[in-house]
Amino acid sequence: MNAKLNGKIALVTGAGRDVGREISLALAAEGATVAVNYNSSATEAEAVVAEIKKLGGNARAYRANVGKYEEVTAMVDAIVKDFGSVDILVNNAGVVINERFVNTTPEQWAKQIDVCLYGTIHTCHAVAPHMIKQNGGRIITLAGDSSRIGESNLAIAAAARAGGIALMKSLARELGRANVTANAISLGLIETAHSDADFLAANRDKIVKQYPLRRIGKPADIAPTVAFLASDGASWITGQVLSINGGFCMV
């Protein structure tokens, strides 16, 4: 365990698996107490909590659908009651439906926008007053390169994530006077245990040719940058979009 985030309380949404899990472990390794948010799988979230505790850290699981404001505010209230504050917010939860725009449905639009955009708005709105009151905080929102350059079959997810990027820039201006930073991380394709294995097997060679580093990203590639943005070392970084994408998008 390091101590760069010792005494800090971090909320990571969608933290029971994949990228969220790696972020939770990285923040805990730096000394933060981690609120592991989940929606559907308590088993996965509790496994992350157990792993953090086994490594000497502190964590607790909290269920909330980030797309529902009342559930988010109840979760944040519970975290503040349990630990006293929320110093770090990582908006990781997301839903992506890969489909041609003309074939998508309003139900699919709502599912992605509720989690990717409204979920980020909800969590930021719930934690911002606490960060302002304590005169400090870190907000980090995960987006995707599709939200910056556009990508076929990802129109709705791209639109929702682009909204999250815009929100970070606005909050950076509004909350900066309270020593709260707000940044986004733009991801390339990340291979997880829940990726479409058949699709990747059929298209891996074609995909990796689009990446100068010639590989698809892994969840562990993301966590170190999140931990850095949460630290005092990033205290003069705000309103930025940092790319972790193997060189896929260079803007």
From TrEMBL:
Domain of life: Bacteria
Bilayer-spanning residue ranges: none
Classification via SUPFAM superfamilies: NAD(P)-binding Rossmann-fold domains (SSF51735)
UniProt keyword annotations, A-Z: Oxidoreductase
UniProt GO MF annotations: oxidoreductase activity
N-terminal signal peptide: none
Keyword Oxidoreductase: yes
Keyword match Membrane: no
InterPro entries xref list: NAD(P)-bd_dom_sf, SDR, SDR_fam
PANTHER family tied to this protein: 3-OXOACYL-(ACYL-CARRIER-PROTEIN) REDUCTASE, 3-OXOACYL-[ACYL-CARRIER-PROTEIN] REDUCTASE FABG
Family, similarity comment: Belongs to the short-chain dehydrogenases/reductases (SDR) family.
Protein name as it appears in the record: SDR family oxidoreductase
The organism of origin for this protein: Noviherbaspirillum sedimenti
Taxonomic path: Bacteria, Pseudomonadati, Pseudomonadota, Betaproteobacteria, Burkholderiales
